Amino acid sequence: MKKTVLTFAEAKEQGEKLTMLTAYDYSTAKLIDGAGIDAILVGDSLGNVILGYEDTLSVTVEDMIHHGAAVARGAKDALVVIDMPFMSYQTSVYDAVVNAGRLMKEGRAGAVKLEGGTEVCSQIKAITDAGIPVMAHLGLTPQSINAFGGFKVQGKTEAAAKKLVENAIAVQEAGAFAVTLECVPDKLARLVTEKLDIPTIGIGAGAGCDGQVLVYADMLGMFSDFTPKFVRRFANTGQIMTDAFKAYIEAVKDGSYPEEKHTYKIDDDVIEKLY
Ligand code: KIV
């Protein structure tokens, strides 16, 4: 059955954990969807994982539409959430609504996600007023990496923790249906989760959140540029792929692939006429 924002609200009410993984293409989305996930995030981590950028800042609305639409084609049941990339919503409320609309119309998203607290509440309100569900994103927000001075845990001081709680309440009041909490101390994430009526989806924020999200390539051991402390490797798919690539190279070189069963036939008298 198709998951929606109502699935998120019901899960919070019933104390059921929500599950979300990233995906950036049709085939991976189809596998994740078939496994029974609640939501698939077409994260702007696309920039790191798929496009090989150092950060997420170069990702464009066109990139998100291109990959989002592929994911949407593969996701039968999961709610597809597409990230709004850097500078597609910070510039103005107008830009935010237009770009969120493109992610829905052209990317076929079920919801959009954007980073920030009080400073983007007018954008969250305008987008939700346009009938587009918004997931907020607080804590370590990778689009602000230059302002943070690196990938650092957020909300550790009293002032920063207080600000995070205020931001969480503000995005809820602005209309967000859920909030991602990234790289936040677990006790603070638990407190935010208790204070909010909307679900919190944690990544590096401990087990007290209403749900969890991971970058699929991290949890499969396919992305090795850096592995954050909070990632559990659920499989070593990267090694399995490397072994398979090596086996293919060897089989082609030693002539053991392709075999007879991999070939197409032609009548001998046709071929003989060509000699
Ligand atoms: O872009 C992304 O993958 C994300 C997750 C880290 C939450 O925003």
Write the layout of secondary structure elements.
Layout: H1 5-14, E1 18-22, H2 26-34, E2 39-42, H3 46-49, H4 61-74, E3 79-83, H5 93-105, E4 111-115, H6 121-129, E5 134-139, H7 145-148, H8 158-174, E6 178-182, H9 186-195, E7 200-203, E8 211-214, H10 216-219, H11 237-254, H12 268-272
Bound molecules: 3-methyl-2-oxobutanoic acid.
Describe this structure in words.
With 275 residues, the protein is α/β, with parallel strands linked by helices. The chain has two domains: 5-236, Phosphoenolpyruvate-binding domains (TIM Barrel, Alpha-Beta Barrel); 240-272, no CATH class. The chain is built from twelve helices and eight strands. The chain has helices at residues 5-14, 26-34, 46-49, 61-74, 93-105, 121-129, 145-148, 158-174, 186-195, 216-219, 237-254, 268-272; strands at 18-22, 39-42, 79-83, 111-115, 134-139, 178-182, 200-203, 211-214. It has an eight-stranded parallel beta barrel with strand order 1-2-3-4-5-6-7-8, surrounded by seven helices. Strand 4 (111-115), helix 6 (121-129) and strand 5 (134-139) form a beta-alpha-beta unit. Helix 2 (26-34) packs across helix 4 and helix 6 (121-129) runs parallel beside helix 8 (158-174). The longest helix is centred in the C-terminal third of the chain and has 18 residues, at 237-254. The termini are far apart. 3-methyl-2-oxobutanoic acid is lined by residues 22, 41, 43-45, 83, 137, 180, 182, 203, 213, 215.
